[in-house]
Amino acid sequence: MTIVSLLSIIAKKQAENSLCHSRASGFHWMQTTGIHSGENEMATILIVYHSQTGKTQKMAETVAEGAKSIEGVEVVLKKAADATLEDLLAADGLAIGTPENFGYMSGMIKDFFDRTYVGAQEKVFRKPFVVFISAGNDGTGALRSIERIALGYKFKTVYSPVIAKGAITEEILNQCHELGATIAGGCQMHIY
Ligand SMILES: Cc1cc2nc3c(=O)[nH]c(=O)nc-3n(C[C@H](O)[C@H](O)[C@H](O)COP(=O)(O)O)c2cc1C
Question: Which of the four pLDDT bands, split at 50, 70 and 90, describes residue 1?
C-alpha cells in the first residue's frame, strides 16, 4: 500500500469518525466504518532509537511527531537503553531507529533485541514494524541486519525504511514524519 492510498484511507476514516461522533454513538461509528475497535481505543506506537551525535534522535523525534499527528495514537519514544520487553509487548506498532555502525545496527539497538527476543517470542507475531537509519554514506548493512532480526521476531514490515546518508535534510524529515504517520494510522485503524 502506498502512502497516498493509506493517508487517503486515514483521512476518510477520520472524516467518517467525526461525522458519526456528531450524530451517533461509538457503536454506530463502528458499524458504519467497519472498524472493530472502541471509539476511545488508543493505539500505542513504540519508537526505540539510539543516537551518538544526534542525527538518529532528530529522525526519531520527527517519526514521533508524525505518529502523534494521527488522532487516537499514543507515542512512547525511548532510547534503546531504556526500552524494555514490557514496552514492546504493550505496543501496537514498533519503529526502530539506528545509526549505521561498522556496517551494522548500533550496539545499543542490538542490545535491545538481545534483551527482548526470548520474552517476545510468540507474542509479537506480525506486529507492525518500520525502520529508520542514519548513516555516513551507506546504511544498507544496518538495514540488512535489522531485517534479519525482524524475521526472527516475525514482525510485519509495513512501510519502506527511511535511510539518511550524511546530513538530515528537510526531505529526510518529511519522510520520517510520513513513516510515523503511516504506521500510526494503520495501527489505529487495525488495517495491517
Ligand atoms: C563507530 C562508528 C562506525 C560507523 N560506521 C559506519 C558505517 O559502517 N557506514 C556508514 O555509512 N556510516 C558509519 N558511521 C557514521 C554514522 O552512521 C553516522 O555519522 C550517523 O549519522 C550517526 O548517527 P547519530 O548522529 O544518530 O549518532 C559510523 C560512525 C561511527 C561513530
Answer: low
Ranges of H-type helices in the chain: 3-23, 26-33, 55-68, 85-90, 107-120, 140-153, 170-188
- Average pLDDT rounded to a whole number, residues 71-78: 98
> Average pLDDT of 55-71?
98
pLDDT score recorded for residue 3:
62
- Please indicate whether residue 136, judged by its CB atom, sits closer than 6 Å to ligand 1: yes
Predicted pLDDT of residue 88: 98
Residues of the chain within CATH 3.40.50.360 domain(s) are: 42-188
Q: Ligand 1 centre and the CA of 136: distance in Å?
A: 5
Predicted structure pTM score: 0.86
Q: What's the fold here for domain 42-188?
A: Rossmann fold (3.40.50)
Q: How many Cβ atoms sit within 10 Å of the Cβ of residue 139? A: 22
3-class DSSP state of 158: coil
Q: Is the CB of 101 under 6 A from ligand 1?
A: yes
Distance 37 CA to ligand 1 centre (A): 41
Q: Which three cell numbers stand for residue 150?
A: 525482524
Report the Cα 182 to chain-centroid distance in Å.
8
Q: How far is CA 13 from CA 123, 173, 184, in A?
A: 29, 26, 14
